[in-house]
From TrEMBL:
Highest taxon above the source species: Bacteria
One Pfam family recorded for the sequence: BD-FAE
This protein's record includes keyword Hydrolase: yes
Name under which the protein is recorded: Acetyl esterase/lipase
Organism: Streptococcus moroccensis
C-alpha cells in the first residue's frame, strides 16, 4: 500500500490529502484501474476527526478500493485543542468560509485525476464519503460540483463524483438552525462556533444557509447517494437524512437510506476500531458499512477476470 500525504495549502499544515493506494500485483488486477473513495471526516468544521479518517480508509481498502482522506479547511490549527473553543472568544478565518471546503474536495479530486495513471485510479468511479460536517461537505459538493461556484475555479472534467456516501449529515441548515435553539448550552456553543467557521458569522443569512443545504438543491445532476443515520442521534436529528432522501426521490436520483433505531452521533464504523468509549460501539449501526459495500458493488465492481488462473 502506498501511503503518502500531500499538503493542499502552504499556509496550513493540517489541510492535506492522504493516499491509501492498493499496490498493484499480477495476482490481483494486474495493471487495471481501481475505483476510489475520497473520505471527509467530521468535526463541526472545527477539526477533522481522526475517528473518521484512516480507519474508514482502511475499511474501504479492504473492499478493494483505493482510498483517500481529505483534511479540509477547518477552524483549528493542527496543534489546537478542541476544548479551547469553549474557553475563549473565537475568531473566524477567511480560509474556512464556504465554499472553501467544497473547493478542497475539487482540489483533491484534481490531484487524484492528475495521478490516476501512476496510482491506477478509475477516475470515472470515485465516490465521496463524509460524516457529520464531512457529510454536509460531500452532500454540498454533490449539488454544486458542476455549478459556477466550483467550475469557475476548477476544471469540471476532473472533478465529477460518481457517488456519495453520507453518514449522519446536516443537509438542511434552515431546519438545523431551528433545532439548535432547542439544544443545551454546550451544543448551542458548538454550533455557534461551527457557524463562524463555515459561514464566517454566528448568524448566517438565508442565502448562506441555502448554499449549504443540499436537501434543498438536489437536481438531476446529483450523483447516486447512500445515506445512513441513527434515530437516537440527538445532536443531528435523523430528519436531516430523511429530508435528503425525500429530495433525491423527488428528483429521481438513485439512493439508499438506512436508519438504525439506536446510536449516538458520530459512530464512524461503530466498532472498536473507531471508538474511544463503549458508547461509540453499536452492533446494529455497524452494519452500515456492509450495506454500503453492497451498494457500491452495483456501481464499482472491480474489473475481474471471468475465471481464475487455476481453473
Amino acid at each position: 500500500m502506498i501511503i503518502k500525504t500531500f499538503n493542499l495549502d502552504e499556509n496550513r499544515t493540517n489541510v492535506d490529502l492522504t493516499t491509501y493506494i492498493i499496490s498493484d500485483s499480477p495476482e490481483l488486477l494486474d495493471g487495471k484501474k481501481r475505483p476510489a473513495i475520497l473520505i471527509c471526516p467530521g468535526g463541526a468544521y472545527l477539526n477533522c476527526s481522526d475517528r473518521e479518517g484512516e480507519a474508514i480508509a482502511l475499511r474501504f481498502a479492504s473492499m478493494g478500493y483505493h482510498a483517500f482522506v481529505l483534511r479540509y479547511h477547518v477552524l483549528l490549527e493542527a496543534d489546537d485543542a478542541f476544548e479551547q473553543l469553549f474557553s475563549r472568544q473565537v475568531k473566524g478565518r477567511a480560509d474556512t468560509v464556504f465554499p472553501a471546503a467544497i473547493h478542497d474536495i475539487a482540489q483533491a479530486l484534481t490531484l487524484i485525476h492528475d495521478h490516476a495513471g501512476e496510482w491506477l485510479v478509475d477516475t470515472d468511479k470515485i465516490a465521496l464519503c463524509g460524516f457529520s460536517a464531512g457529510g454536509n461537505n460531500v452532500t454540498n459538493y454533490s449539488v454544486h460540483w458542476n455549478k459556477p461556484i466550483v467550475t469557475d475555479v476548477f476544471d469540471v472534467t476532473k472533478i465529477k463524483p460518481a457517488a456519495i456516501i453520507a453518514g449522519y449529515p446536516i443537509t438542511d441548515y434552515f431546519v438545523h438552525e431551528a433545532h439548535v435553539k432547542t439544544q443545551d448550552k454546550m451544543a448551542q456553543g458548538l454550533f455557534r462556533v461551527a457557524n463562524i467557521s463555515l459561514f464566517g458569522t454566528e448568524s448566517p443569512s438565508e442565502e448562506q444557509l441555502l448554499q449549504a443545504s443540499a436537501a434543498r438543491l438536489v437536481d438531476d445532476t446529483t450523483p447516486p447517494t447512500f445515506i445512513w443515520a441513527t434515530a437516537g442521534d440527538m445532536l443531528v436529528p435523523v430528519s436531516q437524512s430523511t429530508r435528503l432522501g425525500t429530495a433525491l426521490a423527488e428528483a429521481g436520483i438513485p439512493f439508499e437510506l438506512h436508519i438504525f433505531e439506536e446510536g449516538q452521533h458520530g459512530l464512524a464504523l461503530a466498532t472498536q476500531a473507531t471508538a474511544a468509549a463503549l458508547t461509540e460501539v453499536n452492533a446494529d449501526a455497524r452494519q452500515w458499512v456492509d450495506l454500503a459495500e453492497a451498494w457500491l458493488q452495483k456501481r464499482f465492481a472491480l474489473p475481474l477476470k471471468e475465471k481464475s488462473r487455476w481453473i
